[in-house]
Here is the input.
Amino acid sequence: MGGRTEMLTKIENVWVLNPRAPLSLRQSQSHAVDVFYGCVIIKDDTIIYAGKPEGWNDDGGLAGGAQDRQFDTIVDGKGKVLIPGLINCHTHVPMVMLRGLADDLELHNWLEQAVFPIEDRMTPEDVYWASKVGIAEMIRGGTTCFSEMYFHMDAVAQAVEETGIRAVLSRGFAGSGDDGGAAKLADGLDFALRQRNGAGGRITTMLGPHAPYTCSPDFLREVAALAAEHQLPIHIHVAETAREVSEIREQYGRTPVELLEDVGLFGTRLLAAHGVHLNDRDMEILAARGAAVAHCPASNLKLASGIAPIGRMAAKGINVCLGTDGAASNNNLDMISEMRLAALLAKGISGDPTAMPAADAMHAVVAGGAQALALEGVVGSISPGMKADLALIDYQKPHLTPDANLVSLLVYSCRADDVTDVMVNGQWLMRDGLLQTIDEYEAMEHCNKSIRRIKGSL
Ligand SMILES: [Zn+2]
Here is the structure.
């Protein structure tokens, strides 16, 4: 066929939503989200046009005359909204294996009594199948990228490679350097260097020291030095519980965030999961250091860890993005419901119904998430030059009618199963509700078998 290699896809007759900067950076409610009716054109893995249909027709020079050529695929977006793919900034996808098995416990008991005994028995194969189930769940809910911290990470990377999703992977590790921590750190660094830019660029990596209460200061100093040497961002749990903050204060005379600053962990970009218990000084440090906080409201509620003060964080200029955390403490990997919960909680705890407006909640799960994961300029917006990570949502449903305010519908009324089509890096991962790259029944069967085996051995 004439040696033509590139793929040209057009999504037409569609409403496109692109959130702009959040209110704290914008100073005005207006133009919170760019909304336009038109078409989006994708060449291979990249968006080359997003705008009004007549803009495409009128501009003869666009994309080297690509309009004269046949599109490989034309998708009619009538009755649908096209959004940037959602970004889950903090999760442990293989914990799908523990869904429903570690409920109604406080964090430290949850870890020691319920989580660790099962995780100790999970093989790389278990992690692989649980990852596939979790990735299937995420794609079905419009998530196109996730930020992961776990173990047997090569198995997670394999699932990412095969399913076509985008991911920022870190091998979680903890220790004091001479209790096996050093070997795990070496392993985490090896993984990060081997897998970075893996899966055709869909995988990027970070270093994943678990938390200030599971890593000694000297150990964290070593992590900071390696991160700086290899230019790797850091993904770490911070100030998740009041108990963590009081223990760190007792041991080291400072807050967890102050401790991180002390050991030099802000030398490269830092993604702080949770940030439930932060004081003003902590927030100022995070803001000054350009760190992002991955707010995980459902997990924090379920473990009764508290509610992160995201309104105050945003006011101080911190990039607040959202995560589900693992399925053992959520118990879903659904970013649409997480977005709604975050917006509602921000209002409930502040007594201010204008806190976290819908546009800001949407920004947090797309462009805000991309920035937190060092993927700004790559994903998080539907504009030319960005990678084509997209989701289509069918709004022709009673609970999404009338269609007068599409941003409000997305944040406050939409459900995961309203998502019909998902594309990552120009590849369709779901079309009309059918997964294209995962046999989800096979994955679910393996996952069920694995947990029966593990439970039988406890
Ligand atoms: Zn976590």
In short: The longest helix spans residues 124-140.
